[in-house]
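To close the section, here is one more complete example, presented without commentary so you can practise reading it yourself. The ligand is NAP.
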Amino acid sequence: MANNRGPLSLKDYNTAPFIVGTMRMGHWGRNMNASEIEKFIEGCISMDLIDFDHADIYGSYTTEADFGTVLKKRPDLRTQIRITTKCGIKIVSDKRPDHKIKSYDLNKDHIKRSVENSLLAFRTDHIDNLLLHRPDILFDPYEIAQAFTELKKEGKVKYFGVSNFSVSQFELLQQIFPLCTHQVEISLLHREAFENGILDQCQKWGVTPSAWSPLGGGALLKSSSEDHNITEVQKIVNSLCQKYDAQPDQILLAWLRKHPAGIIPVLGTSKLSRIKNAIESLNINLSHEEWYLLWQVATGTEIA
Ligand SMILES: NC(=O)c1ccc[n+]([C@@H]2O[C@H](COP(=O)([O-])OP(=O)(O)OC[C@H]3O[C@@H](n4cnc5c(N)ncnc54)[C@H](OP(=O)(O)O)[C@@H]3O)[C@@H](O)[C@H]2O)c1
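Output:
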């Protein structure tokens, strides 16, 4: 049972095969009401998916609070799930009147204030995993490490990670503070992490990579794509669907999961039927050649 899990260690933090994304749940997407969110959380828990990926900015600083409304009513759900949230991007919003322009901020004060805001919004006393959403070009790794150390000591955050960092930025911080994840965009549409060293670095440090927009934000599944490469990818995906008696999203997820770094897709759907599909995709083991077939058609160039 998900709620009987023991204390987390850095090594086993990311044991679930998928993380459930929340970006499209609220004002930036489906506008789910409290009862829909409650049913969705319950459904995910029943499938043993207990990690929910948030960011302070989702829904223009409203989605954490939408989720928190449910947790306030159902505190039993809080004990069965783990909350990831992110900070470091400042967007212009009437919820943050002091933000004059969009910017990135990884100063200690901003990190700590963001965590306080997230705790209030979620109506919880701790965040399980705090990610720095984007690298602030002006970041000081020692200042970040100090913020993380204080938040951990205060019991407000259990684990820490980053998102969208470069290999060198990750290394700079990892050397002074242990990170447990690096969340980057990875899909057949966005393949940079396979070649820019990020996945190698995760393997080197034993850090779990997670993939945002694993289905290309849905673009890889659109039936009438005008993008030639996407149409060609879809043809190969469809032929593999026949072979594996699978749905296209399942083939796309199986493709990500084949990489030895152990990529954990952050699912963007708010539909339980599609979450179930994702879980069933765990039975699909694409061959080496099938993986390259998809790579080749996505890049549009033959393997040299
Ligand atoms: N760290 C970062 O910088 C960052 C950036 C962006 C996102 N994220 C995180 O990553 C999560 C996932 O991102 P994403 O939403 O772009 O992921 P995604 O899974 O690639 O895309 C989700 C979209 O695809 C649609 N979709 C899913 N399955 C489908 C199917 N079988 N047929 C047609 N459409 C389908 C969904 O619609 P339905 O809802 O109708 O299923 C939804 O609109 C976010 O929720 C967020 O937590 C992080």
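Once you have examined the tokens, check your reading against these statements. The chain has one domain: 2-223+251-284. The longest helix spans residues 228-244.
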